[in-house]
Automatic annotation (TrEMBL):
Keyword tRNA processing (UniProt): no
Cellular location(s): Cell membrane
Pfam family name, one: Chromate_transp
GO cellular component labels: plasma membrane
This protein's name: Chromate transporter
Organism: Sphingomonas lenta
InterPro entries in alphabetical order: Chr_Tranpt_l_chain, Chromate_transpt
Membrane topology per record: Multi-pass membrane protein
GO molecular function, one term: chromate transmembrane transporter activity
Family recorded in the similarity comment: Belongs to the chromate ion transporter (CHR) (TC 2.A.51) family.
Record keywords, A-Z: Cell membrane, Membrane, Transmembrane, Transmembrane helix
């Protein structure tokens, strides 16, 4: 029987670290264990992978791991999951990468499916549980605000990137599709940051012209609250919604929020309250934060919808490593591509800021006591900004739930 080819690093001579010789089931179980311990968001997840596979077991050298992480941060998708896929390929070829990625995501997927099932069967409106979720929704706004701040600190590094973010936010408020604004933001930034201001101005003018020709009025990508009610979505539509989120997740899982919200809340498949509840539940699970897409898919289309949206969301995270394993590091050296992606990422920051404002308005309109919800938000913000721990998000969500159950009934 022919042996399975395991791709070798391009600079193998400079990297003597190697994964152990594991069977496929052992490899799957190794990353399943990571998935069961993946609390605390991407920073904690990456730190866990680094500690065990780089420092303790020497699957990959530290310098090479750092360079690989830099690549994953440029590409869309959850970095920790992409690292698992890549390291699985390094150990056992592309089948190993698939098993590693599935193992890492499986615990969070199963738990979210169980929570979504329970959510749709338990009484919510006018109950203690409903009041607790109102408190959670206020706390989730704080979590997203902190996430946007953190993402912005890493992305908005010069005035041109700030301009791209502000322009994208303004375009979103004007009802311009993100399919127009994000490529324009990327191209304009790549040109302006290299001194080609005239070409950048032409790109912006063309984008404005296309937007004017396609404008239909109303709020854009960030406005999901008032979308027209559509029939129950098809599985393919939910897969496509997840895929858009997966392809446009730059800088962190929360950047997928405006795209997923626009395709689901904006079409009347679920409410903003349900969307915020899903975000809250994702914050307490051992999983990449984009697992909230599983909840969204369940509310919109049942089990089939949940699996379809999850598949769409995670497909890019698998595909980049599975298809481009030997070439990923070339992304770091591709200056123009990096500039384009930086501009797109800045545009996404602008989109998510508008979305946070919309979600906050929706939460304020739904709460029976605006003062209590504002206090929950303020306390949650204070904790998240001052306590830099992987436990911060679950703790503020628990505080929000407790305060809501007592004070928002």
């Amino acid at each position: 029987m022919a042996s399975i080819e395991h791709p070798a690093p391009a600079n193998a001579a400079l990297d003597d670290a190697r994964p152990p010789d594991l069977s496929y089931p052992a490899l799957f179980l190794r990353f399943l264990r990571f998935g069961m311990m993946a609390f605390g968001g991407p920073v904690a997840q990456i730190a866990m992978i680094r500690r065990e596979l780089v420092e303790e077991e020497r699957w990959i050298g530290s310098d090479r791991f750092n360079k690989l992480l830099a690549v994953m941060q440029v590409l869309p998708g959850p970095e920790a999951h992409e690292l698992c896929v890549h390291l699985g390929i390094r150990a056992k070829g592309r089948l190993g990468g698939l098993l590693a990625g599935l193992g890492f995501m499986l615990p969070g997927l199963v738990l979210m499916l169980a929570l979504a099932w329970a959510y749709t069967r338990l009484p919510i409106q006018g109950t203690l549980l409903g009041a607790a979720f109102l408190g959670v929704q206020a706390a989730v706004i704080a979590v997203i605000v902190r996430a946007v701040h953190r993402i912005g600190e890493h992305i908005l590094l010069d005035p041109w990137l700030w301009a791209a973010a502000i322009a994208a936010a303004a375009a979103s408020l004007a009802g311009v599709s993100f399919w127009i604004m994000l490529p324009a933001a990327g191209a304009a930034y790549a040109l302006a940051s290299t001194g080609r201001h005239a070409l950048a101005a032409i790109v912006v003018a063309l984008a404005i012209g296309v937007a004017a020709l396609t404008w239909t009025g109303g709020a854009g990508a960030a406005d999901g609250a008032g979308g027209a009610r559509e029939v129950t979505p098809t599985t393919l539509a939910l897969f496509w919604a997840g895929l858009k989120g997966g392809l446009l997740t730059f800088g962190g899982a929360y950047t997928a929020i405006p795209f997923i919200r626009n395709d689901t809340v904006g079409r009347g498949w679920m409410t903003d309250a349900q969307f915020l509840d899903g975000l809250g539940l994702s914050g307490i699970l051992p999983a990449p934060l984009v697992i909230f897409a599983t909840f969204v898919g369940w509310i919109s289309g049942g089990l089939a919808g949940a699996l379809a949206m999850t598949a769409g969301m995670f497909l890019p995270a698998f595909a980049f490593s599975l298809l481009l394993y030997e070439r990923l590091e070339a992304v770091v050296e591709h200056k123009r591509l990096q500039l384009f992606l930086a501009g797109v990422a800045a545009g996404v920051v602008g989109l998510i800021v508008v979305t946070v404002v919309d979600l906050a308005r929706t939460t304020a309109a739904r709460t029976p006591n605006l003062v209590v919800s504002a206090l929950i938000l303020a306390v949650a913000l204070g904790i998240i900004y001052r306590w830099r721990s992987k436990l911060a998000t679950p703790v503020v969500l628990a505080i929000g739930a407790s305060a809501g159950a007592v004070l928002l009934r």
